[in-house]
Amino acid sequence: MEFMTRHGFVTAYDDLGPSSGPPVVLVHGHPFDRSMWRPQTEVLVRAGFRVVVPDLRGYGASGVVPGRTLLADFADDIAELLDHLGVQRAVVGGLSMGGQIAMEFHRGYGERVAGLVLADTSPVAETEEGRAVRIGMADRLLAEGMGGYADEVIGRMLAPYNVTELPDVAAHVLGMMRGTAPEGAAAALRGRAERPDYRESLAAARVPVLIVVGADDSYTPAADARVTHGLIPGSGLAVVERAGHMPNLEQPERFNAALLGFLACL
Predict the structure, then answer these.
(1) What backbone torsions phi and psi does residue 158 show, to the nearest 5 degrees?
(2) What strand order describes the sheet that includes 236-240?
(3) S-S: 54 plus which of 13, 206, 209, 212, CB 3.0-4.6 Å?
């Protein structure tokens, strides 16, 4: 499904499961699309949840918006999508950049958040070094396209051993990365270069929070996830063994068990 936003670009999304079910929004990471959540949507729908999974602007089948896309812009897009669907409040989850968008949504639209799922992500503001790296990568993607970047990072997106042990998963992840529009990816990288710090808003969260991380994630290590867990009173933590930065695809059964256990307690 898709709809035209007030800014004039198309947002593609899936709205799955019973309309009366508890709503769950899942936000993909960079440079992926909503298909990364397929192992979760199938399980959640069977469990009776209404699952909303958008393609973020610049990704998947959604419209490409060049320039700079802030995390706040993505959060506003999700709010507009929920308005379009008549969903007032939902559990919001995301992985990596998607987790930062979930944190931004919580900060800006806290009354609409019934719970947070933060997978393989960091609440810490971008550093000066990180800003330079993201801006440089944005320029590179515009100049060279996505192929070389995808080949370079596949062994960090997935744990290196899973690249060979899970060839279908590796092919899916590579396909998502190579299929992303460079203009959309570059705009998101420029926006993430301006990423604020979410630790204060998370520490004040008054909704249930689940933190999930792959045990072998080199982008957002398990040690960092434990620090975030300690920051948020009453939060849950699930460390997924035999997984890197994308445990929802590398170990879907373990990831789903943690997710369903969290949702069952809401």
Answers:
(1) -105, 150
(2) 2-4, 10-16, 50-54, 23-27, 90-95, 113-119, 209-214, 236-240
(3) 13
Residue 244 belongs to what domain range? 2-264
When divided into structural domains, the chain yields a total of 1
- Eight-class DSSP state of 54: E
Torsional sign, CA 213, 214, 216, 217: negative
pTM higher than 0.90: yes
Give the distance between the most distant pair of CA atoms in the chain: 48
Tokens representing 3 are: 């709809």
Q: What is the pLDDT of residues 76-126, one digit of tens each?
A: 999 999 999 999 999 999 999 999 999 999 999 999 999 999 999 999 999
Closest CA to 171 of 156, 141, 150, 149: 150
3-state secondary structure of 48: coil
pLDDT, tens only, 211-238: 999 999 999 999 999 999 999 999 999 9
- Rounded to 5 degrees, φ, ψ at 57 are -55, 135
CA–CA separation, 36 and 14 (whole Å): 12
Distance CA 250, CA 232 (A): 26
- Please give the DSSP secondary-structure letter assigned to residue 121: -
Residues 6+ apart with CB under 8 A from 252: 39, 40
- What is 143-196 written as a DSSP string? HH-SHHHHHHHHHHHS-HHHHHH-HHHHHHHHHHHHHS-HHHHHHHHHHHTT--
Give residues with Cβ within 8 angstroms of 97, minimum separation 6.
29, 30, 71, 121, 188, 192
CA angle, 172 then 177 then 179, to 5°: 90
